[in-house]
Amino acid sequence: MPIVIDRVCKDFGAIRALDHVSLTIQDGTFVTILGSSGCGKSTLLNMLAGLMSPSTGRLTLDGTPITRAGPDRVVVFQQAGLYPWLSLRNNIAFGLKMRGKVDWTRVDDLISVIGLQGFEDHKPYELSGGMQQRVAIARALVMQPRVLLMDEPFGALDAQTRRTMQQFLLELWERIRATVVFITHDIDEAILLGEELVVMSARPGRIALKSAVPLSRPRHWEMILEPAFLDLKRQAMDILAA
Predict the structure, then answer these.
(1) 211 contacts 197 by C-beta, under 8 angstroms
(2) Apex CA 94: angle with CA 48 and CA 179, to 5°?
(3) How far separated are the first and last CA of the chain, in Å rounded?
(4) Tens digits of per-residue pLDDT, 106-158?
(5) How far apart are CA 91 and CA 87, in angstroms?
(6) What's the rounded Cα separation, in Å, for the pair 1 and 7?
(7) Whether the Cβ atoms of residue 183 and residue 42 lie closer than 8 Å to each other
(8) Which residues pair with residue 32 across a beta bridge?
(9) Which of 89, 146, 153, 208 could bond to 201 as cystine, CB 3.0-4.6 Å?
(10) Reduced to 3 states, what is the DSSP secondary structure of residue 240?
């Protein structure tokens, strides 16, 4: 069953961050949520994670209200947040250790998937920014979540590393087909990655556009020049400029 966001509002005192947001996210879909800073997109993600409650409305997964954090939903933030005293391998295994049982085969398989074989014993400071974010994604995926929530995970990376990580995530999603909700303020990134694009208005955040992304898979960067890409980009730019 899908994630359902039903007429959700969020107020912080007298300030309304989100205003009657309704959205359905089907299982296995990669949804990108695009909006300018302060539009409430990260607030919405935090509510999906169960880290924050709506003022009114409700969010459900499989028909069950989302009221707290759970192992079926994991978050990847802009900063990798790795433990500096742990090796790459132990950073990935950390969540499993907290559960009391580590499947080291699963950990090592993910190290292979993210392309970091040979770096198992390296500490975070010995890794590049892009490598650290790969580890953060693997740390989330090792928990085998239903939903992967990503809050501008490439926002702190330089342009070339960001492009590399976007391609990595595209290829990874083709393998795992988990439900992904990806927050960004980068229009090209939102369209290139997503199966569905959601564009939010300025505060108070409302859904101004929800559109299927009319690009074939596998995706690649040359697609940003395709007419379908440019048409959708123009629509998004008009909303963000309003």
Answers:
(1) yes
(2) 30
(3) 35
(4) 999 999 989 999 999 999 999 999 999 999 999 999 999 999 999 999 998 99
(5) 6
(6) 18
(7) yes
(8) 182, 197
(9) 208
(10) helix
* Token pair of 233 as six digits: 């980009």
* Two structure tokens written together for 216: 């074939």
Phi/psi of residue 199, each to 5°? -110, 130
Is 30 within 8 Å of 173 (Cβ atoms)? yes
Q: For the residues of 21-50, what is the DSSP string, one character each?
A: EEEEE-TT-EEEEE--TTSSHHHHHHHHHT
How far is residue 27's CA from residue 154's CA, in Å, rounded to a whole number?
24
100: left (phi over 0), alpha (psi -120 to 50) or beta: left
Identify which of 114, 226, 109, 112 has the alpha carbon closest to the alpha carbon of residue 167.
114
Written as one string, the DSSP assignment of 43-107 is HHHHHHHTSS--SEEEEEETTEE--S--TTEEEE-SS----TTS-HHHHHHHHHHHHT---HHHH
Structure tokens at 215: 């690009």
CA distance 204 to 17: 5
pTM (two decimals): 0.93
Residue 51, burial from CB neighbour count under 10 angstroms (0-12, 13-18, 19+): middle
For residue range 147-179, what is the model confidence (pLDDT) as tens digits?
Answer: 999 999 999 899 999 999 999 999 899 888 899
Token pair recorded at residue 226: 């395709």
Provide the token pair at 1: 């069953």
